[in-house]
């Protein structure tokens, strides 16, 4: 019996779907005794260390879980499921972990690096193991701000390390107890392979170091219906990731993200559309229809997109939890798409027609349960920044603060829709001004980036740099930086905008709007330091394949996931 210890944190639907895809049935832990009755136990987790441990204690799970682990029974921890095995975490001082592995989990401290560590990175195996051997050249999806470090006391546990500023523990194993810092359910076929190996009894198997061939199509299984345990990763990253002896550093790749703007057309059907400077209607007045969201998401996954973002641009007539079609899009997409999914649109507090109040946390929770890994907050973030400015600081009540506190910073993306406002001199406004190489209509050499709401129709007295800084302080983990001026133009990303925001924050930035050819992706990564780049229309219309973008990046020496 395979049991899932789901304590209510984040998206576990994708993990359920991955296990189902592998041909296994899953049961839920519903009471403490279920833990000791499990044959295989999986403990996933996202969010804060303290919140996870407090939830385990409140449910009465801590002692039976410790007993299960002490008995050396098959266990796989994921993300917080790995960190909880340690004695404690700097994230939640005074709250003990399970205490199985010596050491304290610490925050990434390298100032040059964006935190969270978010994206696809490699593994450097420290010893042979049937769970991971042969997968050294593969990339896996990480998203975390805290990490464990190897030391003399826990060295017997360390199975793999990954580099981000320095080495951190990315996998542990001792006997039949194992855990990984990455998310196998979000790591494509390589991640499915790891799950398949665990469920197929890999922790009872000898080393697979001599195995050969590409990662198995784990979803198909072997001829007898059991997932194959063989496979050594292919790819072209060997020189960077320690192909021969595992001694070379791993490397975080740049992410290429496919974005799907989803809205109802005039017939009431959900379609993927694309605007021209945010206008999504054709000349005849119909909503531009570029395909069905679930089918397009599946296509992008198969073509190698590192993440997929859904932006729901339909105006809500009631409130988001009544938007069942969009929730169904998430549920259906997560059945076959095993990379991170972000959903944006309507993530804010609502009162329904019956007067029932739903917090932004309630709305976000439903999206997470439906398959989202991250939620994107747009217009509400602008309102929040105006409120914080007037108040002089946050008070814990904003959607950003509430969601980050429960689900973690990495779960909150801020979607910014700015446009250029030209001014004759830096003294002409209190907003953050840059000197631009793109003069204004009257030859102005300065501009600021005004945040807009309502799909770009209304400007506010908030600039993109201020918004990004304040949202980071409130707990956001990533910035999705659009550009009204470049949207749909194909003329390239607004490098000045992206550089201004990226230099102002320490969280990852996604560049968006304006990509027209593969070289634009290389340009934005080389000149701004953005961690990811997003496109929509050129992918929808097959003008630029995702494979062509990655080939260009690779040719330019920019690390990407194959």
Q: What does it look like?
A:
- By secondary structure, the chain is an alpha/beta fold.
- It is 27% helix and 23% strand.
- The chain is built from 17 helices and 28 strands.
- It has an eight-stranded mixed β-sheet with strand order 2-1-3-4-13-12-11-8.
- Strand 12 and strand 13 form a beta hairpin.
- The protein is globular and about 75 Å long.
- About 9% of the residues have low confidence.
Summarize the structure in short:
The protein has 562 residues and is α/β, with parallel strands linked by helices. It is 27% helix and 23% strand.
Q: What class do helices, strands and sheet pairing give?
A: alpha/beta
The geometry reads as globular
Strand content of the residues, in percent? 15-25%
Report the mean per-residue pLDDT as an integer: 87
How far is it from the N-terminal to the C-terminal residue, by CA? Answer: 35 Å
Rg, Cα atoms, Å: 23 Å
Q: Report low-confidence residues grouped into runs of 5 or more.
A: 208-246, 275-283
Q: What is the percent of helical residues?
A: 25-40%
Instruction: List the strand order in the largest sheet.
Output: 2-1-3-4-13-12-11-8
Q: Report the strand count.
A: 28
For the sheet with most strands, the description reads:
8 strands, mixed
List keywords for this structure.
562 residues; 27% helix; 8-stranded parallel barrel; globular; alpha/beta; 8-stranded mixed beta sheet; 17 helices; single chain
């Amino acid at each position: 019996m395979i049991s899932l210890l789901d304590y209510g944190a984040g998206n576990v639907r994708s993990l359920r779907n991955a296990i189902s895809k592998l041909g296994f049935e899953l049961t839920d832990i519903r009471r403490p005794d279920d833990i000791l009755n499990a044959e295989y136990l999986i403990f996933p987790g996202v969010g804060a260390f303290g919140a996870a441990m407090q939830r385990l204690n409140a449910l009465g799970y801590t002692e039976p879980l410790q007993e299960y682990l002490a008995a050396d029974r098959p266990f796989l921890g994921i993300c917080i499921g790995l960190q909880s095995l340690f004695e404690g975490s700097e994230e939640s001082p005074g709250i003990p972990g399970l205490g199985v592995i010596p050491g304290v989990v610490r925050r990434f401290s390298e100032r040059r690096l964006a935190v969270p560590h978010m994206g696809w990175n490699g593994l450097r195996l420290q010893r042979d193991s049937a769970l991971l051997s042969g997968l050294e050249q593969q990339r896996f999806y990480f998203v975390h701000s805290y990490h464990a470090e190897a030391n003399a006391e826990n060295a017997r546990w360390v199975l793999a390390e990954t580099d981000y500023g320095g080495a951190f523990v990315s996998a542990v194993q001792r006997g039949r107890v194992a855990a990984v810092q990455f998310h196998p359910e979000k790591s494509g076929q390589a991640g499915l392979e790891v799950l398949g190996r665990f469920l197929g009894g890999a922790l009872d198997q000898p080393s697979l170091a001599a195995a050969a061939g590409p990662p198995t199509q784990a979803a198909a299984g072997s001829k007898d219906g059991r997932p194959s345990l063989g496979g050594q990763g292919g790819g072209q990253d060997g020189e960077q990731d320690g192909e021969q002896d595992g001694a070379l550093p791993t490397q975080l790749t740049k992410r290429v993200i496919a974005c799907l703007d989803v809205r109802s057309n005039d017939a009431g059907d959900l379609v993927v559309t694309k605007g021209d400077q945010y206008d999504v209607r054709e000349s005849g007045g119909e909503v531009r229809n570029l395909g069905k969201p679930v089918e397009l998401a599946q296509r992008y996954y198969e073509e190698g997109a590192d993440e997929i973002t859904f932006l729901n641009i339909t105006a809500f007539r009631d409130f988001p939890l009544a938007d069942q079609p969009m929730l169904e899009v998430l549920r259906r997409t997560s059945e076959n798409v095993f990379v991170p999914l972000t959903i944006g649109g309507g993530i804010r507090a609502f009162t329904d027609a019956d007067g029932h109040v739903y917090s932004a946390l309630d709305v976000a929770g439903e999206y997470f349960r439906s398959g989202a890994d991250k939620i994107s907050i747009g217009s509400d973030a602008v309102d929040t920044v105006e409120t914080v400015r007037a108040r002089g600081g946050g008070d814990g009540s904003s959607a950003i603060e509430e969601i980050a506190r429960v689900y973690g910073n990495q779960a909150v993306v801020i979607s910014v829709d700015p446009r250029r406002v030209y001014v004759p001199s830096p003294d002409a406004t209190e907003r953050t001004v840059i000197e631009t190489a793109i003069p204004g209509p009257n030859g102005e050499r300065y501009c600021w980036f005004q945040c807009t709401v309502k799909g770009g129709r209304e400007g506010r007295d908030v600039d993109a740099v201020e918004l990004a800084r304040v949202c980071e302080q409130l707990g956001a983990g990533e910035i999705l930086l659009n550009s009204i001026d470049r949207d749909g133009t194909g003329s390239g990303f607004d490098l000045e905008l992206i550089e201004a925001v990226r230099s102002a924050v320490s969280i990852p930035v996604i560049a968006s709007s304006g990509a027209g050819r593969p070289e634009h992706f290389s340009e934005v990564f080389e000149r701004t330091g953005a961690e990811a780049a997003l496109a929509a229309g050129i992918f929808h219309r097959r003008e630029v394949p995702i494979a062509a973008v990655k080939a260009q990046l690779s040719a330019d020496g920019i690390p990407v996931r194959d």
